[in-house]
User: What shape does this take?
Amino acid sequence: MRKLVTILVAVQLIALSGLKAQTVDDVINKYMEALGGKEKVQGIKSIYQEGVTVMQNGNELTIKTWKVQDKLFRREVQFGMGSQTTIITDKEGWRTDPRNGGAFVTIPEDRVKLQQSELDCVSPLVDYAAKGHTAELLGKEAVDGKECYKIKLTLKSGQPVTYFIDPTTWYVVRESRTGGGMGPGGGGQRPGGTAGDATFNINYSNYQKTEDGYIFPFTVSMGQGGLTFEKIEVNKPVDGKLYKPE
Assistant: This one.
């Protein structure tokens, strides 16, 4: 009898484990459906985003971003008379250094690995297992008074990222990272960088459909800063020069 009870308990534990994994996948699948469906999302191979943010001191920044799936992330920030560029590829990375006359310097390999999640054109949540990430559903948590599904994604680099998905729209409304990351998933990026191991939240809103039917958040905010995209283009040719520190 005791052996039978042990077997039944083991079966229940296995079933509950499978149910939990299925629940995580179910939430992520609904997120992909909200973005136009898995086939639509997987068809995004490159993306160009251009937006404007206003700093607390009133200065306006123009931010341009190019992404090529698994190959390139390039961000150019233009402010006043200056600019700053960051390039991450599947092998290495560079950034301009204002202390060195704006010349490009090599980004250390460990920082490049942490930032390579930016090579994802949509979100690390899409096909997360195939990309080497793991996902866990942590229940629900309120974001601005609304209960959202909370998913912890551990990237293959080991960096944890927490996503909050609104069950009424199935859009990602917040992303929480700890150090290392330059920008969010879900197709956007944060206006500035956070150094060290500080935890920061990135909020997404104003989801819109582009002329060719792709859905992205057109407003991304973090703290007091916010970025509004004025242009988002999908699957346009990307100049090979953008992969190089020039």
About this structure: The chain has one domain: 2-243.
